[in-house]
Amino acid sequence: MSIDFHTLSQKYGTPLYIYDFDKMAENYRAFKEAFSGQKSLISYAVKANSNLSVIQHFGTLGAGADCVSIGEVRRALTAGIERYKIIFSGVGKQDHEIEEALNEEILMLNLESEAEMKRVELVARALGKPARISIRINPNVDPKTHPYISTGLHENKFGVEISMAKRMYIYAKNSEFLEPVGIHFHIGSQLTDLAPIAEAAQIVADLVRSLKAIGVEIKFFDAGGGVGIRYAEETLIDPLAYAEAIAEATKGLDLTLMCELGRALTGDAGYLLSSVLYEKQNGDKRFVIVDAAMNDLLRPTLYGAHHRITFLGQVGQETSQERNKADIVGPICESGDWLAKEVALPQTRHNDLIVIEDAGAYGFTMSSNYNTRGRAAEVVVSQNSERVIRQRESFEDQIRLEKAYLHV
Ligand code: LLP
Question: Does 241 share its domain with 299?
């Protein structure tokens, strides 16, 4: 679908997040169909893009939800995801979160330590209802991605090692208030090589087999998320090959195969639209200053992430043929406030439009009010509709919870 960015910018202003719902549906279906013939549940990792409409969109397609805080669980429920399709992960769940998740009767709590398991047991006992749990395995496999988004090595805080997991499953099986139904791993994000996922799946499936031998029957096999997208020249993991690798690893076991994808479902379906404010030259260095900034899209400065830039200019105005390198930066008072470096751009003018591509995952959700900048509006486009799914944040929105102590 071609998106009329100029009209959208006139109607809603910039910076503006734009999501293509048709593309999101296409991404979801590619994975759902890849698992056809198996019992499967494709969950949407809410953290990638938590807008209620986005979650609801995946819910209507049949997706479950992978959540990492009780806030995300509430979002999933509010957006209409069926409770038996919601899973709650995270290394630091608090008692009130555990209690609410148990009361909401979600599919399972994914445990990340023995101490947490004891806590969940305690809360479940107090409520008088057993907790369905899974355990996140740390298989010590190197996913070969950016260290900040690598999670499956023992040096990372996530999950538990195999021997500990076994002890935990045996404990849970014998507990009146724990019901071990699932197993889980997630080794990292923006993965472009299937081999580490296949290796982890094999390790975890072997654990399922040895648990079965001692009477612990696992029903849900959750292979996490992490499937990467093409920001630049990356090779992609094919959904079919992905599903096959998981099916192959778990062959002969009676399991519902699950995965919890964030970026692969929303990443390439989102755009951050921004307007040029000024150009400037500091010595040899050319900067194009735009109205989006690191508070809108943190990925470039946090991970050195690359997002392609498409220059759109203005309707009815020619742009110069000559293109020269420039850094695209925002108005924030930090040298780290950049969105793209060394981009070949024509001479720009005030209000020329640029599109920052592949901004549908970890874009808006990681945005902030730094420098008292209101968060961008979010708009959805699809073949037959266009609507605002989050209004632009005003100054009043930002100070709503604050109180000036002295009367002025
Ligand atoms: N499941 C678990 C347990 C996770 O921790 C994550 C992501 C996912 C699923 C979804 O991963 P995905 O399919 O989106 O790769 N802010 C970083 C990404 C952090 C990912 C954290 N966990 C970024 O902008 O690249």
Answer: no
